[in-house]
Amino acid sequence: MKKAFLFVFISWSALAQTDTLQVAPVEDITHLHEVVITGTRTPKLVKDSPVLTRVITARDIRKLNPGNFQSLLEMELPGIEFTSNANVPNINLQGLDGNYVLFLLDGERIAGETRNNIDYDLLNPNNIERVEIVKGSLSTLYGSNAMGGVINIITKKNTKPLHLQLNARTGSFSEQQYAVNAGISHKKLNSYTSALWKTIHNYTLEDRDYLERIYTDKVVTDPVLRKKEVEGGKTLNLEQKLAYRFSDRLVSELKATYLQRERFNAGAEGTVMHNLYYSYNTLLRNTFRFNPGNQLDLTYNFSTYDKVNFYHRIDLKEKDYTHRLHNLRLISNNRLSSRQMLTSGAEFLTEGLSTYMFQSGEKFTSGSYTLYTQHDFTPAERFNLLTGFRWDKHSNYGGNLSPSVSLKYTLSKTVSLRSTYAGGFRSPSLKELHTNWDHLGMFQIIGNPELKPEKSRTWSVTTDYAHGKMYASVNLFRNLIHDKLDLRWNAANDTVYYHNSGRQLLKGAELNTVFSPLQKWKVQLGYTYTHDGRIQGGKNLSYTRPHTAVFKTDYTFGKASHRTVLSLNGKYLSSTDVYSEDNDDLYYKIHYPGYSIWRIQATRHYKEHLALSAGISNIFNYTPDVNSFYSSSSPGRTFFISLNIDSGLIFSN
To answer: Which tens digit of pLDDT belongs to each residue from 25-64?
Structure first.
């Protein structure tokens, strides 16, 4: 007892001689104790969720310090690849493109797409609290477009009476970024403001070798080396959140976001025209808490996205794309007992689209009504069962039922099993139904009003191992899509049209592990094998690279209050041979070599107030010998420096 008293007295005396106690944040490197909501629509710890969920935290984002959201996903996750189609980023998630990956911003849909992808500049890395990724169909909870997975970006909220965060970044190709996050909390009112301005110049990729089309009996070589200009631009991204607590039972939240982006169009087009993009989003959410186990959420989300041709020589703006979303939703969460939770909801979604791809002046709309329910049941301490059903009535396609069942069984303190079956669907988009567009005089793209919705059946089985500061998981997945939507050329090869091509079977495996060999050393490995089933006559027609892997490690030097973190990240993508048909209906293949890109960064922290970072992206200066839509768009080795000032702890002490 005397020794304990002496220890307490000495400790108190030491603290009394210092102004503040500096404690480094304890990092849960496995993320098993992160609270997630995407896979179930109710808060659950990662370790307890029957739906396998990958989390990228704000700490992960700070360590990587990405210049944009695409880089964050590419360097953090295996099984994700971004290619460039006409200078627009195109996502590939386990063999499926952006049509099948639903991006949510704070749980809500986002208007606007270009070549089936959202505008990724809507997503400000400096304003992200965490990213939740669920691979596989979540149509039961989120409806159409969630057949391949859901990526939910959760933005930051203010948790302090006064908080100010500043960030500045500069890098190669005249990259500049300036960000401000500011929060105020007073009594019942909470406010959070985020702003980002960034710009980067164009750069050019030049072929070092000639493209080869390999036939059975010959090789055809392109006669010229090509150049590809990757376009830069400037972006303004604003967000304002307000929350007011009327009482312990009623909280209202209002969020508004604004995006203005200018694209520095390449080539001769850029000398007369730049594309401008505008996005406006408004979210109103009211939460009624009747008691700790019963809650009702009423949400209205409005999202709009416009594309404008700006002829800067004559100062003329011409709108050629507008997409609008209105989404009204009511969700009830009711705890039936200590072991049962029932989530039920109803929603209405309507969208309108006018685009240069339609005949002049045409605008089309669609709508859907939805009812869904989910039962979360824990019949025994080690067993959790999640079942759900969703019924959608679409204005063009009538009713559709999507079921799902997920279970988690804990074998021991270290090993657990997860398994999921889910039915999915995707209604054809307004673009797929009604496009009638002459593609620059080269060919015609025609929609098809007779298209049928796609339906899928997804299975996954996961084994998890967690012990101390080590976590490993192996996930096997299988996704069978019926009435797959695709593009088909006519006999004359002058028109391509949308049609239902039949079935597609995607399957593969994913391995993730994270461990800490030493107290200040963290290592993470991820690997994905994907076979997307696009084989015809023994020939691979897919651009999906079958093997992808990520590697992350960081080591911390020094004390908690004055520390340096050295981080190394790598991404590997395997080679692939892709077959295509020429105008004579003869097959040829193009070989796409495998490659890896590595990134290193050093960050010096002063307490928790100041962080100075410097880094090199693409350390080994990789660029493809031949540039195409499906090769890396990296300009080679680039450099960046960033400074982050966070006043949160200053004001709170």
So the answer is: 456 777 888 999 999 898 999 999 999 999 999 989 988 8
| Distance, CA of 58 to chain centre | 14
The residue extents of the domains of the chain are: 2-652
CB atoms under 10 Å from CB of 70, counted, come to: 19
Report how far residue 649's alpha carbon sits from residue 167's, in angstroms, rounded to the nearest whole number: 16
C-beta separation of 405 from 385 below 8 A: yes
* Per-residue pLDDT reduced to its tens digit, 442-472: 889 999 999 999 999 999 999 999 998 899 9
Tokens 């964050």 appear where? 72
**What CATH architecture does domain 2-652 belong to?**
Beta Barrel (2.40)
In angstroms, the Cα distances linking 629 to 86, 103, 320, 344, 357 are 7, 23, 24, 43, 21
pTM above 0.90, yes or no: yes
Report, as an integer, the average pLDDT of 511-526. 94
Encoding tokens for residue 117? 């992808």
Please choose, from the candidates 211, 6, 66, 5, the residue with its C-alpha nearest in 3D space to the C-alpha of residue 613: 66
Structure token digits, residue 194:
């985020």
CA distance 620 to 82: 20
Alpha helix stretches (DSSP H) within 406-457: 430-434
CA–CA distance, 541 with 400 (Å, rounded to integer) = 31
Which of 5, 48, 38 minimizes the C-alpha distance to 407?
48
Residue 454 in contact with residue 485, Cβ under 8 Å?
yes
CB count in 10 Å sphere of residue 632: 21
Q: Which helix (H) or strand (E) element contains residue 209?
A: none
Report residue 548's pLDDT band, with 50, 70 and 90 as the boundaries.
very high
